[in-house]
Amino acid sequence: MTRAVEIVNAFMQALEAKEFTRAANYLSDSMLLIGFTPKPLSKKQFIDVISELAEGFPNLAYNFHGVEEIAETMEGTRVRGAIQITGTQVNSFQLPPLGISPIPQMAGSISLPEENWEYRIEDNVIASIRVDSKPGGGVEGLLNQLGIKAPIIQ
User: How confident is the model over 54-62, as a mean pLDDT?
Assistant: First the structure.
């Protein structure tokens, strides 16, 4: 297993364990998440969104699998893995980085389509995460499965 794959696995394990401070340590300060939301999220925005989702969905799971190194380039090492987010909402939550007002407890379950997440590793940290969005996926798909059709403002 390469160092880049180890970093991605450790990062995803921290997210699954809801250890967001530890997860943030695997991200560069200038990290961008692209494709999960209509506009890119910064490191802080990403951690805020993921921690709020975990508040609303205590059993939030990423079902991360199929991790593999796909390329080593001048910009860093690229690693890809498949993610299929599932969970049951039992608490209200907020998504301030997305301009969405508090979402009440809806008691709904979500099961998003499997999406590929591509991580770019530079200097032993994740510099970017690019989500290969599918219809019904991302944060909009998650909200739609709860019956919320509010536009995401960023």
Answer: 96
Residue boundaries of the structural domains of the chain? 3-145
- Measured between alpha carbons, how far is 115 from 131 in angstroms, rounded to an integer? 7
pLDDT higher than threshold 70 for residue 28? yes
How many other C-beta atoms are found inside a 10 Å radius of the C-beta of residue 137?
Answer: 20
Supply φ then ψ for residue 131, to 5 degrees: -100, 125
For the chain, give the mean pLDDT: 93
The closest of 100, 21, 91 to 60, measured between CA atoms, is 91
The CATH code that applies to domain 3-145 is 3.10.450.50
Bigger pLDDT: 108 or 117? Answer: 117
